[in-house]
Write the structure tokens for this entry.
Amino acid sequence: MSRQVVRSSKFRHVFGQPAKADQCYEDVRVSQTTWDSGFCAVNPKFMALICEASGGGAFLVLPLSKTGRVDKNVPLVCGHTAPVLDIAWCPHNDNVIASGSEDCTVMVWEIPDGGLTLPLREAIVTLEGHTKRVGIVAWHPTAQNVLLSAGCDNVILVWDVGTGAAVLTLGPDVHPDTIYSVDWSRDGALICTSCRDKRVRIIEPRKGTIVAEKDRPHEGTRPVHAVFVSEGKILTTGFSRMSERQVALWDTKHLEEPLSLQELDTSSGVLLPFFDPDTNIVYLCGKGDSSIRYFEITSEAPFLHYLSMFSSKESQRGMGYMPKRGLEVNKCEIARFYKLHERKCEPIAMTVPRKDTVSRLEEEMRSLQATVQELQKRLDRLEETTQAK
């Protein structure tokens, strides 16, 4: 009989640690809008979340250090005339944030150091080009002042924020239906999109050409999300024909069959994937879920390895993901999420325990196993004595 060996991984013991109450952001009114975005964006300076606002769309920006109860009269960024659907911090300037809204515009804002003291109504740039609501905004990862937006008019626009002009348009001939997700590759040379027509496309934006395309990566009718991961692969989340949630890994050069396809559960929330290229870990956060699953991606079969799951009692309305430069690496932190509750934002640190801690835990586990075996032997002897009498 062959003995199964547990796969060796540095991240097998990663665990999530929610922040204490005084490190959370209390009494914030998270948006009730139905839309599959994270509703939260964070960087090493600020935390921003889309909030409920009367008479238009608004979002809240707070310095990371300003935890605790948030004043109900705190100043908001409130220049949109309809609800905000997505926000994204610029990766090259921690004071600049972009927002997309139901009023068909994209606005770029500059937040002063220390946060807002008065409501911010004037954007530094207003980008107008969409004819329907804008649900996705994403900054180029390597080029400064380049911003992508995707709207419900089935159009993707790439903007030069410096001039306020659209430098590239991918029209309805590329995406004939609603665009569910857009993701830049790490070098910004390609974009990966998922669409309501049940196709995932990899597009070279400079030429406007589709490099690769996969029809029905998941058989279900619910939204699919796709992100680039390491070594020319993409990861998709979606639903099976029986409405079971799935995660799949694909080689962009051979999209006929997935490298790995795993079924997770039967929950209805759309899974939002967050990929960490430094550790090759992908985190899956479902809106309405109370858990975060994480998987490790490797270059050898079976390619996608389930690691563990962080669970809590409260369900999440949205999720923000901190860039690696904002983490406390001296505390072995490899990722940090900002989980949106109905009236609260809660940081969750993902930590790799130090080697001596892992060794101590494994030693305790071996000791417990030896104790269980000894108790089992005693129980067997007691049963034999009872039968003999």
